[in-house]
Design a protein that fits this description.
The protein is mainly alpha-helical. It contains eleven helices and six strands. Helices cover 61% and strands 5% of the residues.
Length: 340
């Protein structure tokens, strides 16, 4: 038979273009297409080339057919059924049965593997990106990322098992047993080397009749890793800002404590304390105004808090409530800015 006759048989019987190929009594490890069979014939490296459609691999006396290039200007002969072809050649133990190949593999698991990292990326962008530091966004990000990696690895193992990846034994051209990565191996590879293993598996599955999703896998992997890395940097920047604000507040508190302890010989300690507290409150209000005009909500929150604390110690309830509210409002604005 010629390659064109193989194509015609696939079309007439509504079968996929997938063939086992036997070259000089050595069967290749994975199915090939008619185009690949033509390349082997054109190379002239093999004296005997036989093909067997994957749907017939489990039959007794599997109908292998000899494939040759058609003579120049010779009309193709009438198509004959493959079941009446030449004497069979041995099928390797790893080749799938006819029952396994009659139905086209389902793409459900492969689609879920592609959609899951996309959904997680959207969740990280919309949900984790809107959290403040008190909600612990770093832990949520880690949980989502690790969960996605583990689930995609499990799905890869399940689908690889259904496709028959790595089952049985295969021989190389020298007749030696060749190692193949099985379902567990692919699951571990995806989990431990996700950025490489995830798209690699989405390509390898195509060798067992499933759709090649390599391009989609690469795009999804880059998006997932990119958004996760960017969000990690943003969270760390927010933490650094929060530490700086806390340190600045601590410095101001220490300075105020030192001022309160200074002795005053001209007035009573109680009067000196009230005078100092009023000075502190007035000074903090001025600095809060400057920070507000300059667009620094973190500084405004600190100085309005200092003013509120001074009024609290003075027993001025009205001014304390006013500046305490200002401090809380500015703190919320600062938290939202740094969590984005």
């Amino acid at each position: 038979m010629t390659p064109s006759q193989l194509r015609q048989w696939s079309f007439q019987n509504s079968q996929p273009d997938q063939w086992w190929l036997n070259l000089d009594a050595v069967t290749e490890d994975v199915p090939v297409t008619v185009a690949e069979i033509e390349e082997r014939l054109k190379s002239g490296d093999y004296s005997a080339v036989q093909a067997l459609h994957v749907s017939q691999a489990g039959m007794e006396n599997a109908p292998w057919v000899e494939v040759t290039m058609p003579p120049v200007m010779k009309a193709p002969p009438v198509m004959q059924p493959l079941l009446s072809a030449v004497a069979p050649a041995a099928v390797p133990a790893s080749h799938p049965t006819a029952t396994e190949e009659k139905q086209k593999p389902q793409e459900t698991l492969g689609i879920i593997m592609l959609v899951l990292p996309l959904a997680t990326s959207l969740l990280i962008w919309q949900w984790v990106g809107g959290m403040n530091l008190l909600q612990n966004p770093g832990s949520v990000l880690a949980l989502l990322s690790i969960g996605t990696v583990v689930v995609t690895g499990i799905l890869a193992g399940i689908e690889a098992d259904k496709l028959g990846v790595g089952k049985g034994k295969t021989l190389d051209k020298n007749g030696r047993e060749k190692h193949q990565t099985g379902p567990i191996g692919w699951a571990i590879t995806v989990m431990l080397l996700w950025i490489v293993g995830f798209p690699a598996y989405l390509y390898w599955r195509s060798r067992y009749g499933a759709k090649n999703m390599l391009i989609g896998g690469i795009g999804v992997a880059l998006l997932f890793v990119g958004i996760g890395s960017w969000m990690t940097v943003m969270i760390e920047n927010s933490r650094s800002r929060a530490v700086q604000v806390a340190e600045k507040f601590q410095q101001e508190a220490s300075h105020l404590e030192a001022q309160f302890l200074e002795p005053k010989s001209t007035i009573s300690p109680e009067q000196a304390m009230k005078k100092r507290l009023n000075e502190v409150a007035n000074d903090a209000i001025k600095k809060c105004q400057i920070a507000t005009d300059s667009g620094h909500p973190d500084d405004a929150a600190i100085y309005s808090g200092i003013a509120a604390d001074a009024f609290l110690q003075l027993g001025n309830e009205e001014d304390y409530r006013t500046w305490k509210k200002f401090s809380d409002d500015w703190a919320k604005i600062a938290a939202k800015r740094y969590s984005r």
